[in-house]
């Protein structure tokens, strides 16, 4: 179509006439160049993703701090949410793992907010003073770190989280890529198959232990 349009304009405004075969040849060349550009873009994107996956990794918290990774899994059909929390020390050693559930919830962002709330309540009850709360729900992380009042559908949850953060200057909430949140995500998915909250102190499930070992190996 572009070739026909150019041919028309050249014929009208520049008194240049191209035969149909010339137009077809130009169109074929344009199509070839377009496909080559698409292929180059795909290769560049793949290389970028591979490079990103090599650099992304779970990071240990600062000395004297713990890191609480949190995540949620949603079963929309059952309107049920699984919550996962894993707390690790400065060496990456698991301290506490928790699987929890919430019924009558099918909104993913609300589920993520509830997972963060769960992580904070656990750390409060354990009297942990220096905590990095890390999750892959960027919307929630931004909302919690925003000083303005949240009027969204999950605003009551984020405002409650902000209230928990008040006065706890050594508690921070930060975002991480989902590939760095595998342990908490696995806990959240597995909790969908449980009927009650499960808590492990140091002796965590094998499925989580394998993830932790792999992540610790990556940061050694």
UniProtKB/TrEMBL annotation:
This is Uncharacterized protein LOC118348864. CDD domains: RNase_H_like. It comes from the Eukaryota. Residues 69-190 form the RNase H type-1 domain. Signal peptide: none annotated. PANTHER family: BNAC02G40300D PROTEIN (PTHR47074), POLYNUCLEOTIDYL TRANSFERASE, RIBONUCLEASE H-LIKE SUPERFAMILY PROTEIN (PTHR47074:SF48). It holds the Pfam family RVT_3. The gene is LOC118348864. It comes from Juglans regia (English walnut). InterPro entries: RNase_H-like_dom_plant, RNase_H-like_EbsB-rel, RNaseH-like_sf, RNaseH_domain, RNaseH_sf. One of its GO terms (molecular function) is nucleic acid binding.
């Amino acid at each position: 179509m572009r070739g026909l349009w150019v041919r028309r304009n050249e014929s009208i405004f520049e008194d240049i006439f191209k035969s149909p075969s010339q137009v077809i040849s130009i169109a074929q060349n344009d199509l070839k160049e377009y496909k080559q550009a698409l292929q180059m873009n795909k290769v560049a994107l793949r290389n970028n993703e591979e490079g990103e996956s090599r650099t992304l990794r779970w990071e240990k918290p600062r000395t004297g701090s713990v890191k609480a990774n949190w995540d949620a899994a949603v079963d929309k059909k059952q309107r049920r949410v699984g919550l996962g929390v894993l707390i690790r020390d400065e060496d990456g050693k698991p301290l506490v793992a928790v699987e929890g559930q919430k019924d009558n919830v099918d909104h993913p962002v609300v589920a993520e907010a509830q997972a963060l709330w769960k992580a904070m309540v656990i750390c409060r009850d354990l009297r942990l003073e220096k905590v990095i709360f890390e999750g892959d729900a960027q919307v929630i992380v931004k909302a919690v770190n925003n000083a303005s009042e949240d009027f969204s559908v999950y605003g009551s949850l984020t405002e409650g989280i902000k209230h928990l953060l008040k006065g706890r200057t050594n508690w921070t909430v930060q975002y991480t890529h989902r590939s760095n949140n595998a342990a908490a995500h696995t806990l959240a998915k597995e909790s969908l198959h449980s009927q009650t909250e499960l808590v492990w102190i140091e002796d965590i499930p094998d499925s989580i232990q394998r993830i932790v070992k792999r992540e610790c190996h990556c940061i050694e």
